[in-house]
Amino acid sequence: MKKVAIVYHSGYGHTTKAAEAVQAGVAANGAAAELILIDAEGNITEAQWASLAAADAIVFGSPTYMGTVSWQFKKFADASSKPWYHQQWKNKIAAGFTNSATMNGDKLSTLQYLFTFSQQHSMIWVGTGLMPSNSKAAQRNDVNYVGSFSGLMTQSPSDSSPEEGPLPGDLETAKLFGQRIAEVAKKFS
Which positions, given as ranges, span the membrane (predicted)? Predict the structure, then answer.
């Protein structure tokens, strides 16, 4: 069974909802999925570092703050220099996701950061593989309404609780993204 680690930071709980939906998609495709929450100080445990080393795929997630990842995620990324030095994550599958309060919110900048981070680790990046919902008939709760190919983008209004956002269509997009990550990980046996 393939193992997927989902390592992410969530400032208010919305990014956690996206991570849980990605996890559900991974599990629906027959892979094991572990959530690794980067704490409020930007740290993970030694056991969680070991889980990343043992994973077949690593999915990175962060809210978009000021056009990039949160400082907590950046601290985690900087702390990954030891696995980087030993190329511990080389040829693992990588993917990324982000959430912000606006439809755009410069989320692409965050995904580009996560992509570059994965490439520093010599990983193999996977995008959503989903067509956008961009016709006149499209509704906000359609799959990939935000229209991202590079990675998962979800949106939660700034005054919403995690129970109110991301919306169901974004969470369904996250599940489908998780399924694709597990599918690609299986192909790299």
Answer: none
Backbone angle region of 39, left / alpha / beta, with phi > 0 → left and psi within -120 to 50 → alpha: beta
Q: How far apart are CA 170 and CA 148, in angstroms?
A: 11
Residue 172, CA distances (Å) to 30, 109, 189 in order: 17, 23, 27
pLDDT tens-digit map of 68-98: 999 999 999 999 999 999 999 999 999 999 9
* CA–CA distance, 50 with 54 (Å, rounded to integer): 6
Residue 162 contacts residue 14 (beta carbons within 8 Å): yes
pTM attached to this predicted model: 0.97
Those residues with Cβ within 8 angstroms of residue 119's Cβ, 6 or more apart along the chain or in another chain: 125
* Kind and range of the H or E run holding 19: helix 14-28
